[in-house]
Design a protein that fits this description.
The chain is of the alpha/beta class and 1167 residues long. It is globular and about 100 Å long. The protein contains 37 helices and 41 strands. The strands form 8 sheets. Strands 2-1-18-17-19-20-21-22-23 form a 9-stranded mixed beta sheet. A 7-stranded mixed beta sheet has the order 9-8-7-10-11-13-12, sandwiched between helices. Strand 7, helix 9 and strand 8 form a beta-alpha-beta unit.
């Protein structure tokens, strides 16, 4: 679901707006509205909406006009009010970065609730801490799993609202690496049961323990000899593997159906020597819905729920499994990771790490994507089931033997059940449970009674800062403070109609950008992560979007200026708000030396979060940038006073350095739960915030001169040294730690160094901290110490600590080899200032950080002509890994896009492959179109010798379209028409919709006998591999199904190649690897067609060409001329034409000319 799917147009509201505050000039909202006359957020925002409802308000990740933003945020506000949480209820917002996120933020504050921003990129532990005061989480489908996790972890979070789905339970969470075919085939490569490992040291579970688990599974499923009718059972094993449990279940059944992602596991199962019928299907757990019509006495999901991408996914699998059960059947969910015992498990892992020195289990636990499920989840699911079910929860045998070393040592301390089993059967009485999960359908309509009045003293939002105790502190900002900053920042928006937001949405700088954009009647574009982290993409975005004003940290500004100077191009903005660190005069001079930057204005903005974003600002321009050796932080904003005080709280005269105290309209309520109360003081009848910053006043301007405490700024972010030290000390093996912040290399930014006493692997410590701290809090240097130096009063003497550069180990491993690695080593040496002699050393362990990573990317792009994304650098952080990545980017790729014919000056027609992946079917059609169009075919990877994600992973039509569009745009970017036959028609339509979403015109789409209804496709997907082959290939490929079924996989492939060559269907020399890929392509595309539940609605015009001879086509809907397309397209937008032939023959040599004629006639009218 997208923003465009919401009904956002608000009805006319007859609220009285004072005439003096409404602009007479609709083209200049910000110039005429007087914010002082609007004393509440609601009044101010509504006045802007009334003034120009159709003006753009938000863009980036969706787009909203002021009228649409008003409607959506009002519906969100009314939803919150209807829940009755009470005064100052805290509402967490956890969505993907973009317009929807900020619409939710506005809705929260309009409801009188307290907005609490959280971002998915933050560490899980930090997000959980931040969300403790929340009663509701507003989320979207990308963050749904996290939102539900926090709902289960925190009893105070009563509800979850998913904004981009009408029906909550229909959201399909995106898969993690744990639903990857490649991953599970690698795990299973050495043999069966390789996924069962100890939580503590990753040792394989012994066969004896797995046998105990298998026996327990049979017992709980009622499949042992002790149970009546135990034999003659039909068993569906989801996530079967091929090990002990699979063998036991097959032995105890009369029909055994296995579902698994890993082909090698299914191959082993097909060779089982058991006297039962074994059928194997390669599909995800959620795909069992395609088995509708099959019935099983037992459905087993043992040890697989932890690999599911989310709780909704698990709900859907349970519901589908229940629907497949016979009336007296059993649904068994085994070895579920217990969320209620997750903290106990972590404590046991930490104790084991301390005792053994092996931290692998703890690191795996902290970084794992595995799904932990609370027991109440199953009770809630049962209560909402359409049929009554009984739930029985018992400890898992494997969990009872989860000790270190072998996964089963009963003498180990803390040996408890961290997993449980669930047995589900029909029966019992229906239970009622309150609704805790909501979708967009639950948002009330606009209109109705006025939203609750908000008092100035009510809290508006909470933003977290680093905490000296190791726990982040929440700053509570009231509505009066928010209204103050909206007024105070208004002058900085003058002449800037289009504003960009660079800052993270969980930082208060995002409030600053809202103040200078939508609350001034201007539009706000939310830059995507790559756009805000890459200088090249940032400038391209600013130019394309026509941005006038952006925010930025000085650290990124330094990198940006270097890039602009190298490129000899000016900054495409009118003004920048720079905040978070001290500005470097040399960088400012370099910036204004670039031709074209003469008119850009820079604002040096200062302000702690505790004083509502900004407290002072100083304008820097071409006329004054050379007048200062150190730039002032300027004069206080309207309503703000800055004082320089001595240690006794007495105000100091000009030019004398003291502590900066701030008073006035921006001083916030304080910290959540009154943390660190001493920071806010009453003095002389005024309320002050003691910043801890040192500075002085001279000639009416305030100057900043550093800090008095352990708080530092790293890349524009506040960091409490104490928080970092506490996190480091929490790693097993660390006995003492001291963290210091300094500039350790000439020309670099301030960074952190951790001095650690204890036997600790620095790489493992870094991985651990990355799970617990924001990136800017993770030290760049780790220096091993025998002991920490102490001062005369027995405190750590940080001045006596050695330089961390002396502790950087750059040797000891394999030297960089080959031209790519050697070139990378040279770049690293210039960037990091150390010789790199270990190809496996990590960039970040050698002193790299996020800002240096941007410089590294720019240098690689300039000197090696290859672009590397920031996230790719994070996952390929050593020279060896990076060299391998670059080799993959520069090697000759096999593009799926093939040019069939070229027409100079003609438009570009792309024809998508059918279910088998081949595009040979289009050869004659292309010949008939060649005089008018350049024709390309988009082929699947089915015939490729090389295995790739596109022919090994299981896809959807939507994900394939996304991949193919990316490949198409590398070939052509203009005058594109999409078309496809059969399954290719679905791909053509979805690709056209995605192309339009990028800002291109939505042109006509050619659909050649494609069915946009997945009911028949589901039947195909339900077939096992042999049955599927019979359905799609046996007409052209004669083979013996029974002979094929008893063969091992390798023989099957050789046999099919032989049959294909004999029949002439396959060329001579076609390999077994190619046949394997072809079969994977058939299976994958059949599943993709079956998964095509909700085509993207659009106003697209299509030509639907149907075969006249359709009686024998099993895919056709006999009672629907439009074959499902009119379900989501307007009938008047579908041009239905008929052509001679069957589904298979309409593109043959004798009939393709008819299809070409219909296409040319239609396109002549529409294009």
């Amino acid at each position: 679901m997208k923003l465009a799917d919401f009904s956002l147009r608000a009805p006319e509201k007859k609220k009285h707006i004072p005439a003096s505050s409404v602009s007479a000039d609709a083209g200049s909202v910000s110039a005429n509205l007087a914010p002082e006359q609007h004393n509440t957020l609601e009044n101010l925002f509504r006045s802007l909406v009334v003034n120009n409802p159709d003006a753009p308000a938000l863009a980036g990740g969706g787009a909203l006009s002021f009228g649409e933003l008003d409607a959506l945020s009002e519906r969100i506000a009314r939803f919150i009010v209807a829940r009755g949480y009470g005064r100052e209820a805290v509402v967490g917002v956890l969505c993907a970065r973009g317009a929807l996120y900020l619409a939710a933020a506005l809705g929260v504050m309009r409801a009188g609730a307290v907005y609490l921003p959280v971002e998915r990129e933050q560490p899980q532990v930090r997000k959980e801490t931040m969300l403790r005061p929340a009663s509701l989480i507003i989320t979207d489908s990308t963050c749904l799993r996290d939102a539900e996790y926090f709902h289960y972890r925190n009893p105070g979070i009563l509800h979850v609202l998913c904004l981009d789905a009408q029906h909550y339970d229909e959201v399909a969470e995106k898969g993690t690496g744990l639903v990857s075919t490649e991953y599970w085939e690698q795990v299973a490569e050495p043999g069966s049961d390789m996924g069962w490992k100890s939580d503590f040291d990753a040792a394989p579970c012994p066969q004896a323990e797995l046998a105990k688990m298998a026996a327990a599974v049979l017992e709980k499923c009622g499949l042992t000899d002790n149970h009546a009718h135990s034999h003659g059972r039909r068993v569906l094993d989801v996530g079967s593997g091929s090990g002990v449990v699979a063998h036991a279940l097959a032995d105890a059944s009369c029909e055994y159906a296995a579902i698994d992602l890993a082909r090698n596991e299914l191959n082993r199962l097909s060779c089982l020597s058991v006297p039962v019928v074994v059928s194997a299907r390669r599909m995800e757990a959620a795909d069992i819905r395609f088995l509708e019509g099959h019935t099983f006495d037992t459905v087993v999901l043992n040890g697989v729920a932890e690999n599911f991408p989310g709780y909704n996914y698990l709900r859907n699998v349970l519901s589908h499994a229940l629907g497949l059960l016979a009336p007296q059947g059993t649904l068994f969910v085994g070895a579920v990771r217990d969320l209620d015992r997750k903290d106990d498990l972590r404590a046991a892992l930490q104790a084991y790490a301390l005792a053994s020195g092996n931290q692998a289990g703890l690191l795996r636990h902290d970084s794992s994507d595995e799904l932990f499920v609370p027991r109440r989840f199953f009770m809630e699911w049962a209560a909402q089931c359409p049929v009554p079910v009984e739930i029985e929860i018992t400890p898992c045998v494997l969990g009872l033997g989860n000790g270190p070393g072998n996964g089963c040592d009963e003498d180990q301390p803390g040996n408890e059940a961290y997993r449980y089993d669930v047995v589900i059967r029909r029966g019992g009485s229906q239970q009622n449970a309150p609704c805790t999960r909501f979708g967009a359908q639950h948002l009330p309509p606009v209109g109705g009674p006025p939203l609750p009045a908000v008092e100035p003293e009510q809290a508006a939002y909470i933003v977290y800062t680093s905490g000296s105790t190791g726990v982040p502190k929440g700053v509570v900002v009231e509505h009066r403070h928010l209204m103050h900053i909206l007024r105070a920042l208004r002058p900085y928006a003058a002449g800037c109609a289009r504003v960009g937001l660079v800052a993270p949405l969980s930082f208060d700088a995002s409030v600053q950008q809202l103040a200078v954009s939508i609350f001034c009647g201007n539009s706000l574009y939310v830059l995507a992560d790559e756009e805000r982290k890459n200088p090249s993409l940032f400038c391209a975005c600013a130019r394309e979007r026509g941005l006038d004003l952006c925010d930025m940290t000085p650290a990124f500004f330094n990198v940006l200026t270097d890039w602009l100077a190298e490129q000899r191009q000016p900054l495409p903005l009118k003004a920048l708000l720079l905040a978070g660190e001290v500005l470097r005069p040399d960088v400012i001079r370099k910036f204004y030396a670039i031709p074209g930057n003469e008119g850009v204005v820079l604002y040096n903005v200062y302000g702690p979060t505790e004083c509502t974003v900004d407290s002072s600002a100083f304008r820097i321009d071409l006329g004054n940038y050379q007048d200062f050796t150190a730039y002032p932080i300027g004069m206080p904003l309207q309503g703000v006073r800055i004082h320089v005080m001595d240690k006794n709280g007495c105000e100091l005269p000009d030019s004398v350095t003291g502590e900066l105290w701030i008073s006035g309209d921006g001083v916030s309520r304080g910290y959540l739960n009154n943390a660190a109360p001493a920071a806010f003081v009453e003095h002389g009848g005024q309320r002050f915030y003691r910043t801890g910053d040192k500075g002085f006043v001279q000639n009416g301007l305030v100057y900043y001169r550093g800090r008095e405490d352990q708080q530092v700024k790293i890349r524009g972010n506040r960091v409490e040294i104490g928080e970092v030290e506490k996190a480091v000390a929490g790693f097993p093996g660390v006995r003492q730690v001291a963290v210091v912040a300094d500039i350790f290399r000439a020309g670099s930014e301030k960074s952190l160094a951790a001095y650690v006493v204890g036997q600790v692997d620095a790489a493992l410590l870094r991985r651990y901290l990355e799970q617990h701290l924001p990136p800017y809090c993770v030290p760049e240097f780790f220096v091993p110490m025998v002991e920490l130096p102490l001062s005369i009063n027995r405190k750590v003497d940080k001045k006596a600590l050695p330089s961390p550069l002396g502790g950087v180990e750059t040797g000891g491993g394999r030297k960089p080899a080959g031209p790519v690695e050697e070139k990378l080593a040279q770049i690293w040496q210039r960037l990091l200032g150390v010789e790199v002699t270990d190809a496996d050393a990590g960039f970040f362990s050698l002193g790299g950080h996020s800002i240096l990573s941007i410089r590294l990317i720019a240098m690689i792009e300039k000197e090696m002509n290859v672009h590397v994304a920031v996230n790719e650098l994070l996952t390929h952080s050593s020279i060896a890994q990076l060299a391998e990545l670059l080799a993959g980017k520069t090697e000759k790729r096999e593009s799926p896009v093939i040019r069939l014919c070229h027409c100079p000056g003609g438009k570009n027609l792309f024809l998508f492959h059918p279910v088998g992946g081949s595009v040979f079917c289009y050869s004659d059609l292309a010949r008939h179109l060649a005089h008018k169009y350049t024709v390309y075919a988009v082929e699947a990877a089915g015939f490729s010798q090389k295995r790739s994600s596109i022919n090994t992973e299981l896809h959807t039509v939507e994900s394939l379209s996304e991949y193919y569009l990316d490949e198409i745009l590398k070939v052509e970017s203009q005058n594109i028409i999409f078309a496809g036959w059969s399954f290719g028609g679905l791909l053509a339509y979805e690709t056209a919709c995605r192309h339009a979403a990028l800002g291109h015109a939505l042109g006509p789409v050619i659909i050649l006998d494609s069915v946009a209804d997945n009911s028949r496709a589901k039947e195909m997907a339900a077939k096992d591999d042999i049955e599927l082959l019979q359905s799609v290939l046996q007409k052209g490929l004669a083979f013996d199904p029974q002979k094929l079924r008893v063969m091992p996989r390798e023989q099957q492939l050789d046999y099919l190649v032989e049959c294909g060559e004999k029949s002439g269907l396959l060329p001579v020399g076609f390999s077994a690897v190619q046949m394997d890929n072809l079969l994977l392509t058939y299976r994958g595309n059949a599943l993709a067609a079956a998964r095509y539940e909700r085509p993207t609605p659009s106003d697209c015009k299509v030509l639907l060409v149907r075969a006249l001879d359709f009686a024998n086509n099993p895919q056709i809907l006999m009672d629907d001329d439009y074959q499902g397309w009119s379900r989501f397209l307007k009938t008047e937008n579908i041009a239905l034409r008929w052509t001679q032939g069957t589904h298979e023959s309409i593109l043959s040599a004798g009939l393709s000319a008819n299809v070409a004629t219909l296409m040319l006639e239609y396109l002549e009218q529409e294009v």
